[in-house]
Amino acid sequence: MADAVVSFVLERLTDSVIQELKFLGGVRDQVQLAQTQLQLMRGYLKDADSRQGESEAIRIWVANIRDAAYDLDDAIETFVLKVASKRNASLLKMFAYICVGGIYLYKIGSEIKKITTKISELRSSLPGDLRESGGDTSFQRQQERRIAYPHIIEPHVVGLAGGTEILATHLIKEKGPRVVSILGMGGLGKTTLAKQVYHHGKVKRHFDCFAWVCISQQCQAREVLEEILTKLISPTNDQRQEIAKLKIDQIAEKLWNTQRERKCLVVLDDIWTSDAWRSLQAGFPMNEETESRILLTTATKKSLRMQAKMVSSSNHSCYPKIYEQKKELGMEMLQHCKGLPLAITVLAGLLARKDTVDEWNTVHKNVYAYIRRGTDLGPDYQGEGYEGVSWLLELSYDNLPYYLKLCFLYLAHFPEDYEIPVSTLTKLWMAEGFISSASSEVMEDVSYGCLSELVGRSMVQVGKHGLSKKIKTCHLHDLMRDLCMLKAKEGNFVHIINYSIASETKETPNGRVQRLAIYLDRTVDTYGPGKDENYGHVRSLLYFIPEYFMNSKVSLQLWSLLKNFTFLRVLKFEGVLGELMLPGEIRNLVHLRFLSIKNSAVSTVPSSIANLVCLQTLNLPGSWNFNIPNRNMFSKMEKLRHIYLPIFRSARDKRQYIFSPKVVNLHTVVNIGIQASSNLDDFVKLTNLRKLGVITFDGGEKKEKGTNIIFKHLHSLSMDSFVEDQAIPWNIVLSCPNIYKLRLLGHITELPEDLMYLKNLTKLTLTYFGNLKDDHLKVLEKLPSLRMFFAWSGNFPAHLVSSEGGFPFLEFLSLHWLKEFKEWKVEKGAMPSLCKLHIERCYDLEAVPDGLQYITTLKELTIEGTRPEFCSRLGEGGEDFYKIQHVQSIIITNIWGKEDWEKMVC
Predict the structure, then answer these.
(1) Domain named Disease resistance N-terminal: which ranges (predicted)?
(2) Domain of 156: which CATH number?
């Protein structure tokens, strides 16, 4: 991990940083010297990282290098911030600052010089075994272990017969695919499946010649092409010597022609990168009709789903009771494998040599350790791929570029089984500085691309997808999380204080802590790490808090920490109830880039928050009572990209906050107040907005003209209007032609036909709307991409007709608390894709529509808070049962009588 940290710091010491120091020669020279020393050191760090467990000397040496790199980063950034604060001053003031600040310049120069000297001394004190190895030997050893030998067939392979037949059939088809791929995370069984196909009878009879090659992570194209050619043509010794003299293009041509002339099967096992494939592609006739085929295995985002059975060598027919006990233990242990075939193989290998129930119980108690390390397997299994899963997963980690290593290790902050919001995660990576982008790239897109790459490498698993099919949440496979935690602990990347476990089991930090995650518990009063010199350089502080957590002591203890955590880049403190306040000392966190106190009972922010000029993300509580004392508070925050303001506060105060004129990269603005007469001209420079939430308040004469601005990047728009009889300003909606999500709260008198041009609109929510007429809904029926429609608390037409062909792609419809809504007719062919229908508190609705019987896609119907007579019609034998009898899930709850309804309304 030190290798990743050093690479990260070197990336940040770019010319742009040096430019800040160009007038300050002494400091600039010291930075460049430190940069050189780190570059010279980096060659040994990859091997040193992987060998920390072999020697305490190596571990200490690596830790010192890592800390020195962080020190350099902190010192330079602190200095650059001071220089930048004077950047806009006149030359005279700048000169005066340099003169008056001479003592500080000397101090910072001395500090950088001290760090540089330390790095130089560490390079001179390189442990002898690292110096002799020349670096990367451990990586090479792992690479050798990864090689698969096609002639060795694994015993007891189960669950692959179906996949083997399918792949074999594809390979021997006359018009079959030229390349067949086996995809999935490390340990999933890709190579095992490929071997079964390689030795399949149909395959052996169909092809004339065969070649199996393992592609190393450092793919040497010439060597690989020569190896394939040699295996396909079986050359004599003289021919081998001739081939050895050929250039790579000549070898590629010879290999190309061989595959055109004969039926060849080439297996490329374990390709890690697209670059590796591109380097080999010249040797394969991809664009010609040939009977040769390629079978490749690689780790990608699509995991294979396989079924496996636990294999036991016990004679269970003689001992049925023992067999049942083992079977129960085995099934429980199998759950820990989470469907990973390599883990199942390791576990089966362990248990095959355990005869007694007590021995099985011993494995059961420490099942994760056994699976990871392959402990106590016995001599018959060593060297046969039963070493455990950790080494294979670790190989995937070692193959990551440095920035992805850092992104992956950051996942160690999150508790087990935690569904991680991708939107938050990508912002945290950006705040830590892991994400760099060229001027033409959007940083959020680069950050999301890093997540996609980790998913593509099968390091991270997808939880949920959003409306635009982007990944919304993610998590780690349990065994991958073990690797993540192991590597994070090994490199002191993050320290976790978990108050949900006994205090005697908590670990003290082993060296300087760079990042801190605190898991709170309701039963403990002390929630901070305490005073410890190891916490002086914390860059990231994330609290994970139980739901409905109320404890004001947490606030007091957190704020006391802020006096010492002056290098913080990230502070996440969400979901704490009770009397809380944000202290003025927050002004000292000048490095802070991410601050989130959402869902916490913080009532105000101090004016000193304006000092946080590096902030990229600011997420404030959504409370009505939250107070922002100064509307100029954000005017100096030039790097703001995402800001979430309090709900309703803008409208109540009729206050428009002032942002810096240099804030051109704002992507998210939520709950910003504008006049009802506005046409968003105030946002003229914010054309990169992707998410916008506005609250309109009264003021000024309404403008009839349309907006002149087109927000082509905006994907999500929310508009809340509390102006009586003031209609939703449709000119603003129509200035966002590419939105996916639209939420409107307020008076609606019309739905313009131009809404049909919102071709990407997928989710629509209407709340507290006025009298919506039937012809208005005809407009909504024509939206070409609408999949989710929520109508909440408004006046619906008394008699509503859903037309044939209307809402062609609608999947989820929610009707909630709609007044005067009595009769609903659904014509045959309407809503042909509807899957879920939710009806709640529509007290006047007399019956579900007859046309529901024609919607065969409807799988779930939920009805809540309606009259008893309405619900009785839907029961089996009821007069409306025929309309919904095909629906798989019907949930009816909270049946209200007339008195209940009248009380609720009053």
Answers:
(1) 5-88
(2) 3.40.50.300
